[in-house]
Amino acid sequence: MSVSMMRAVEIDPSIREPFDRYLEGLIHRWSGYVAALGFTLVPLFLVLDWLAAPELFGRFFVYRALCTALVIAQYLLLKTIRPTRYDFLHGYFFSVVVAGAITWMTVDLGGFDSSYYAGLNLVMIGVSMLIPWRPVHSAINSVGILVMYVLANALFGGPFEVAKLVNNLFFMGGTAVIGTAVASAKYQLIANEFVTREELVIANRDLDASRLDLKAARDALWGEMEVAKRIQTSLLPANRRVGGYEVAARMSPAAEVGGDYYDIIQAGEDRNWIAIGDVSGHGVESGLVMMMTQTSILSLVRENERLSPADVFSAVNDVLLDNISRLHAARYMTLNVVRLHDAGLTLAGKHQDVLVWRRAMGAVETVSNEGCWIGVVDDTRGRVSDQTIAMQEGDVALFFTDGATEAMNGRGEMYGEDRLAAVLAAVAERPLDEALEVLFSEIAAFRAVQDDDVTMMLVRRSSQAASARAREPAAAQRSTAA
């Protein structure tokens, strides 16, 4: 059920004041959580600063120190005062402080051409998801962040490419829309919950009161979970050709918001990456870990072309480890970071086996990967190394999460790698979209109930002619520029 179809709730004048007090208490409490999240994450991202811009590390340290101090002061203030009708201003204050620091980092990194703008997306989404204020505040807050970013970089940033500015504003605008939609759905759900609770109180006092529409309340709750699931899947990348490879992927979340992650990244000429992982558990915590992982990997591979997959894996672990522990979230993550080369796939991390269909032999090979998980050990260096899988023309690699092989039928049997490999062998020469459809259909037909997310990614080594055609647009652009 979509947000527009959810039962509209009119707050009766007799309960308007109690509802306002209830909402103020929620905003006050969650503003404190947001502040705690801020002074935890802001200094930890110094690791990213050191890797992405070591020459500016000192300046960025000052920005983050000032920002952290202000957010700590905000947190202490929230702990000492009572909720008031003006507590929504804490959301604006947090956004101005944190987004302002990130904005000045983009200015120092060259303006609109800097990829650090991605951090502003985290601020917009984080504030909109966690603070239960009215949706108009999410909209105003997001627009304010956009205006601050544009004005600061227009006035003080360096030269930039219009295409990059349009790209940045497109994604930030999309984030603003999603954040406002989430805030609207959440506000309506809070109103539903409050009115339902008041109706239950009245029903307990008056046995002759009409029966509550519990089915509508249940449908409203699960409808909002469905909205969250659609938001998560809408942020996933589209299938496409990257370098000498065709890549197609798909995720089928379970009933809750999922913890599976995959990405397809073109960081520059001959710098093509994919990644796949699985955060333990489900729900908002797992979704936040997934989003932090996606942002960290994207920033690392775009800012430093010399990083190997093992380097990226270790840097992501450094960023996420303290975040997960400080939030008291018992979460870990399996992850493969993969760079695509003409000679094959170089991967690092610990995840499920990789199934590789060899066109020359017409058979499937199983490739195990050794290492450790994200969020388990303090330092993965020395525990995780690069591993190369040779890929010949027409070979197809299948990456998947455990929801595929651990799908269970009514007799308690798991689907397993053997069945998955057999289906891969049968469809490996089809177009990748068709092959994925068959793989998902076979698993769905086998299992009794879907109780875990299922993600699969197919990577095919293209013919030399197709690879050459894929490189022609880039070559033409360089020729035109010359």
Keywords:
14 helices; 5-stranded antiparallel beta sheet; globular; 6-stranded antiparallel beta sheet; 482 residues; 11 strands; alpha+beta; disordered N terminus; disordered C terminus; 15% strand
Quick overview of this protein structure:
By secondary structure, this protein is of the alpha+beta class.
Number of helices: 14
Structural class of the secondary elements?
alpha+beta
Radius of gyration: 24 Å
Number of strands: 11
Residue-averaged pLDDT: 83
The largest β sheet comes out as: 6 strands, antiparallel
In one word, what is the shape?
globular
Which stretches are low in confidence, meaning pLDDT under 50 for 5 or more residues running?
A: 1-8, 207-213, 474-482
Give the helices and strands as they follow along the chain: HHHHHHHHEEEEHHEEEEEEHHHEH
Strand content: 5-15%
Range of helix content = 55-70%
Measured between the Cα atoms of the first and last residue, the distance is 53 Å
Question: Which strand order spans the largest sheet, edge to edge or round the barrel?
Answer: 1-2-11-10-7-8
Give a written overview of the molecule.
With 482 residues, the protein is of the alpha+beta class. Helices cover 56% and strands 15% of the residues. It contains 14 helices and eleven strands. Strands 1-2-11-10-7-8 form a six-stranded antiparallel sheet. The protein is globular and about 75 Å long. Mean pLDDT is 83; it is low at 1-8, 207-213 and 474-482.
